[in-house]
Amino acid sequence: MTLSVEMITFDCADPDTLADWWAQAVSGSVNAYAPGEFVLVQRDGGPNLGFQRVPDPTPGKNRVHLDFHTADMEAEVSRLVGLGATETGRHNFGEEFNWVVLTDPAGNAFCIAGG
Predict the structure, then answer these.
(1) Residue 50 half-sphere exposure, CB side, CA atoms within 13 Å?
(2) What are the tens digits of pLDDT across the range 35-88?
(3) Strand ranges in the chain using DSSP code E only, listed in sequence order
(4) DSSP assignment letter at 27
(5) How many CA atoms lie within 13 A of 107 on its CB side?
(6) Which one, of 74, 72, 77, lies nearest residue 87 by Cα?
(7) Is the whole-model pTM more than 0.90?
């Protein structure tokens, strides 16, 4: 038996708004299975992103986050900040591997690496 990642799900207070934001960020399409409760962002090549309403999202630092790679890290960071993301840090392992940590409008951390 082989497992494949079908979806990464975010617990949140407002799944409709957060799904709309992520759909713009990853060029996905929104499918509101249960508006206000569970919304899916479908992406070509997956995995899909799910957003489910919970009464009390987990406080503190995410234990799981998304990592993205792009040829032009600075342009992508600028685009995402323009959509409403917040840059929270920059890191590297020498000059060969650099990444930027951002948060989405609900405070979920994700990273953009480039090069």
Answers:
(1) 13
(2) 999 999 999 988 999 999 988 877 777 778 899 999 999 999 999 999 999 999
(3) 7-12, 29-34, 38-42, 48-53, 66-70, 86-93, 97-103, 109-114
(4) T
(5) 11
(6) 77
(7) no
